[in-house]
């Protein structure tokens, strides 16, 4: 079909759009824009204009007829703006990926760091206990070596599922990398946190893995635990380092267990309200 | 008829002790009774939240208590129980409710907000506080205009009383304390106990506490408790009874001294922590 069809035969709205597009094309050419530049990679600008009364079904014929293939048509109708929703979804997916581990869907290290610093600040201000556990699967290299990496991945995914199902909605579960996981437990003291971790380790022990033809096997996990109460007025303790050292100790003491670091910030009671023994002696003896 | 005078007349007293078993609740009840007989309107508040006992001393079984005020739809006037017709009332609390021992400060604030309307009708508010130094006890004690610290001549009671005074000073800046020595054999013994506590407060805390009086041990006290009547109603002229009457006179003087200060305040404002900071 020839391109130089007389525009007078066209409906009024198409005529109007064509005229405007031609004007724009001329304008772009006058400013050095090229019609053939679209695939060259750099300096591409999309210009958008809302065209009421034109549907996506009409567009391909129109584009073909008038040489408008370089013009991108984006439907904006149907109230939900499906194309924009699509872009929005893509952005949401990207943002999810920046904070989540693709294999296990747990939070990744970056998100973990953010949550930990937020909870530390909350505890420092509110004096509500905060517990942090670092968990590391025992002898994971042997699992990979013996049963293969896909099987190792299955162990990681199952461990992640155990972590999610054994914790509360407001706990933060993360995969820090490799076979190392972390659990942030807000408003949780050492005793409660230890019970939670013991339960998780027990569930991991009970889990049985069948990878293909190989014989089924079980995995174990070690954990280091630390608790911060926001009591001391000094700088915040490095909870991650303390939990990591406790984990190291758990490994050194035979694995498959949790070791808790001593409470990091027990501050001495306020001196001005303590009854000293000299005062007691005076009250008892009068001198 | 409740008079609607614009000036506030209610002066609050907390009756407190570092340790239980010093006769605090019994003193609160009888002081209230004495003041009522002296022509004053008295509200006795059981603030031993969680372990309340005043109802037992009075032989009452109140249907509602202070905790009901936290539920919507309960008016303070529905909770108050008259001990004597004409101006001696009782505000009961619940026993065996551990979460009440450490009242959230918002909840406590709301409680006082709701009590506000009630309090203007009285001359004396006597708060019978739980023993010990829980946060709630300390906050209540810091809120009242006057504090009556009850001790006995036992040395351990002295140290408990002292600890309570020291904590209130350190944490709430409270400096005014009146001491009642209960269960003393003689007035002299009571005086010696007070002087020991006074000397310690002066020496270590630079605090000048006041002796409100001594109440002697009296066999009539346990009898009155068993009969569930105020001692002063059963045996007003026994040793302890006369001592408590003396104490009541002391409380009246303390109130008289407070009146000019609270005249301009509204309702529970005189129960605010500001006066102790």
Tell me the CATH topology of the largest domain in chain A. Answer: Alpha-Beta Plaits
Oligomer: heterodimer
Q: Rg of chain B from C-alpha positions?
A: 17 Å
Q: What's the name of the CATH homologous superfamily of the largest domain in chain A?
A: Reverse transcriptase/Diguanylate cyclase domain
Give short descriptive properties of this protein.
A: 287 residues, alpha+beta, Alpha-Beta Plaits, 2 domains, five-stranded mixed beta sheet, 7 strands, B: 277 residues, alpha/beta, Rossmann fold, eight-stranded mixed beta sheet, 10 helices, globular, disordered N terminus
Quick structural summary:
Chain A is α+β, with helices and mostly antiparallel strands and 287 residues long. Helices cover 45% and strands 13% of the residues of chain A.
Characterise this structure.
The complex is a heterodimer of chains A (287) and B (277). Chain A is α+β, with helices and mostly antiparallel strands and 287 residues long. In chain A, strand 4 (208-209) and strand 5 form a beta hairpin. In chain A, strands 2-3-1-6-7 form a 5-stranded mixed sheet, sandwiched between helices. The radius of gyration of chain A is 32 Å and the shape is elongated. Chain A folds into 2 domains: 7-66, no CATH class; 103-260, Alpha-Beta Plaits, CATH 3.30.70. Chain A is built from 9 helices and 7 strands. Chain B has an 8-stranded mixed sheet with strand order 3-4-2-5-1-6-7-8, sandwiched between helices. With 277 residues, chain B is an alpha/beta fold. In chain B, helix 1 (24-37) packs across helix 10 (239-262), helix 5 packs across helix 6 (155-172) and helix 6 (155-172) runs parallel beside helix 7. Chain B has one domain: Rossmann fold (3-Layer(aba) Sandwich), CATH 3.40.50.300. Chain B is built from 10 helices and 8 strands. At the A-B interface, helix 9 of A face helix 6 and helix 7 of B.
């Amino acid at each position: 079909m020839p391109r130089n069809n007389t525009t007078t035969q066209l409906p009024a709205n198409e005529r109007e759009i064509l005229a405007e597009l031609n004007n724009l094309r001329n304008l772009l050419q006058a400013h050095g824009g090229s019609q053939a530049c679209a695939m060259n990679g750099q300096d591409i600008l999309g210009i958008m204009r809302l065209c009421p009364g034109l549907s996506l079904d009409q567009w391909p014929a129109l584009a073909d007829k008038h040489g408008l293939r370089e013009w991108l048509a984006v439907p904006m109708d149907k109230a939900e703006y499906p194309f924009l929703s699509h872009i929005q979804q893509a952005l949401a997916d990207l943002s999810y990926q920046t904070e989540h581990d693709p294999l296990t869907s747990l939070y990744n290290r970056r998100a973990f760091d953010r949550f930990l610093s937020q909870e530390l600040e909350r505890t420092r201000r509110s004096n509500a206990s905060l517990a942090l556990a670092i968990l590391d699967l025992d002898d994971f290299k042997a699992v990979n070596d013996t049963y293969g990496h896909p099987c190792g991945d299955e162990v990681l995914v199952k461990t992640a599922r155990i972590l999610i199902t054994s914790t509360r909605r407001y706990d933060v579960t993360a995969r820090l990398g490799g076979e190392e996981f972390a659990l942030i437990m807000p408003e949780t003291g050492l005793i409660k946190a230890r019970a939670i971790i013991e339960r998780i380790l027990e569930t991991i022990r009970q889990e049985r893995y069948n990878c293909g033809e190989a014989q089924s096997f079980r995995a174990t996990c070690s954990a280091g635990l630390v608790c911060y109460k926001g009591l001391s007025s000094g700088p915040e303790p490095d909870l991650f380092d303390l939990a990591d050292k406790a984990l190291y100790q758990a490994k050194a003491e035979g694995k498959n267990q949790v070791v808790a670091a001593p409470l990091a910030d027990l501050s001495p009671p306020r001196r001005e309200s303590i009854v000293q023994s000299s005062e007691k002696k005076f009250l008892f003896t009068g001198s | 008829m409740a008079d609607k005078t614009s000036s506030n007349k209610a002066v609050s007293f907390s009756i407190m002790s570092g340790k239980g078993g010093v006769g605090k609740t019994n003193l609160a009840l009888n002081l209230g009774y004495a003041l009522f007989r002296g022509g004053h309107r008295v509200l006795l508040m059981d603030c031993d939240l969680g372990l309340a006992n005043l109802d037992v001393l009075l032989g009452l079984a109140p249907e509602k208590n202070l905790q009901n005020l936290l539920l919507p739809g309960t008016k303070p006037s529905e909770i108050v129980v008259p001990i004597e017709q004409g101006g001696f009332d009782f505000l009961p609390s619940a026993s065996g409710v551990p979460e009440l021992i450490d009242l959230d400060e918002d909840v406590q604030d709301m409680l006082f907000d709701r009590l506000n309307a009630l309090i203007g009708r009285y001359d004396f508010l006597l708060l019978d506080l739980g023993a010990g130094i829980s946060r709630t006890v300390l906050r209540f004690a810091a809120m009242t205009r006057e504090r009556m610290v009850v001790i006995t001549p036992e040395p351990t009671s002295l140290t408990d009383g002292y600890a309570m005074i020291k904590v209130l000073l350190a944490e709430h800046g409270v400096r005014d304390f009146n001491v009642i020595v209960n269960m003393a054999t003689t007035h002299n013994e009571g005086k010696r106990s007070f002087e020991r506590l006074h000397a310690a407060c002066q020496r270590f805390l630079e605090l000048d506490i006041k002796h409100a009086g001594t109440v002697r041990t009296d066999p009539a006290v346990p009898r009155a408790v068993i009969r569930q009547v105020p001692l002063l109603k059963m045996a007003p002229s026994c040793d302890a009874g006369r001592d408590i009457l003396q104490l009541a006179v002391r409380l009246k003087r303390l109130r008289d001294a407070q009146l000019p200060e609270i005249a301009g305040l509204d309702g529970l404002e005189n129960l605010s922590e500001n006066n102790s900071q």
